[in-house]
Write a structure and sequence with these properties.
This protein has 372 residues and is mainly beta. 2% of the residues lie in helices and 51% in strands.
Length: 372
């Protein structure tokens, strides 16, 4: 029976079957009720069993696990979307029951079986964090075993596989059991890191120095762009020209830019780049004999008068077009527009006035032309 939000009352019952419930856990969507069941006629008196109930109280699955002796589930753990079931096997000996062994079985999100491992020493205490199922062979002292979601084992004396000054991109998970120090702060039982920075991990009297770099895309150092860009940065404190920058924001105004990603322990990564005005229609120090159509990005000033793109310039004269941008960025274009002047040649004169030469007569040393 569940009370509160989404309350329900569900009956677990099957003919010729008896349930012993040892506990229940909540996954993202379901409840896992675990323990053992006795089915009349089975070769062994009881077997390990868990039942999946959804948030409305509907029974979705019943899974019975038999390792050919007496088994019960004493713990269930949900780590990284994987269900890990802890089964303890007991062996009947001279009309009594003795400890046999431990099984840990994993299931995916749809409760499909993945694999099983066996751990023989008797476990007196179990717990878990977001990384491991943690086992103790004694009631006091450090953990003796950590079990990951893939059922691989972490032991207290394992050597951490990090080379000095190794660089990790975006993230790293470091396996270790019990206590360690990260940048002089105490941590325990594994650590996942995804923030850029310079790190020092101390564990089992050894020191590991490494770096985490963010994933940066959409921008390159010392690059010129004619169009806007949208840099994406996976993590870090990102500054653009001394202002806080949100990853994925478009940068479109012309200018000189400095993008800096700051991380832990004075980690920094800097990209310098320029966005131009993408000027079209004119070139610097050029003379035009026809009107010009000009387009650009940014803040324009034509002969010191503010103008918006696009503009048409048709009047004869000398012009200075300045495009201003971020961080003292400036583009300057000098150009002229001049009137068309024609040099009159004899041929062009004849063609222009449509002259038809009828008679050429030498009169007083001249040529007489008669218009048609």
């Amino acid at each position: 029976e569940k009370t509160g939000i989404n309350s329900f009352y569900t009956m677990l019952w099957k003919e010729k079957e008896r349930y012993i419930i040892n506990g229940v856990i909540k996954t993202d969507d379901d409840y896992i009720v675990y323990g053992s069941n006795h089915v009349t006629g089975n070769p062994t008196y009881y077997d390990s069993m868990f039942i999946v109930i959804d948030e409305l109280g509907n029974i979705l699955h019943q899974v019975t696990i038999d390792f050919d002796d007496l088994e019960e589930i004493v713990g269930a753990y949900y780590i990284n979307d994987t269900l890990i079931i802890h089964t303890v096997q007991s062996i009947e000996f001279e009309r009594d029951y003795q400890y046999g062994t431990n099984y840990f079985s994993s299931y995916d999100q749809s409760y499909n079986f993945i694999e099983t491992i066996e751990i023989r020493p008797e476990i007196v205490k179990t717990s878990s964090n977001e990384n491991y199922v943690l086992l103790n062979y004694e009631y006091k002292g450090d953990y003796d075993v950590g079990i990951k979601d893939d059922l691989s084992i972490v032991l207290p004396n394992d050597i951490i596989d990090i080379t000095n000054q190794e660089v990790f991109i975006n993230e790293v998970f470091i396996d270790f059991l019990n206590d360690a120090s990260l940048n002089n702060e105490s941590i325990e039982n594994g650590v996942y890191l995804d923030y850029p920075g310079i790190y020092k991990l101390e564990y089992n009297n050894s020191e590991y120095n490494f770096i985490i770099k963010p994933i940066i895309s959409g921008v390159e150092d010392n690059k010129y762009y004619t169009e806007g860009i949208s840099p994406t940065i996976s993590a870090g404190n990102v500054i653009l020209n001394n202002d806080l920058f949100i990853s994925g924001t478009e940068i479109s105004d012309p200018g000189n830019y400095e993008l800096t990603v700051n991380g832990i322990n004075n980690y920094t990564e800097t990209y310098n780049f320029t966005i131009t005005s993408n000027m079209e229609g004119i070139t610097n120090n050029h003379t035009y004999f026809n009107p010009v159509a000009i387009s650009f990005n940014g803040e324009g000033y034509l002969n010191n008068q503010f103008v918006n793109s696009p503009i048409d310039v048709s009047e004869v004269g000398e012009y200075i077009l300045k495009i201003r941008g971020e961080n003292n960025y400036l583009e300057t274009y000098y150009f002229k527009i001049e009137a068309i002047t024609e040099t009159m040649t004899f041929v062009s004169f004849v063609q222009k006035f449509d002259i038809f030469i009828l008679v050429i007569v030498l009169v007083s040393g001249g040529i007489i032309l008669k218009k048609k």
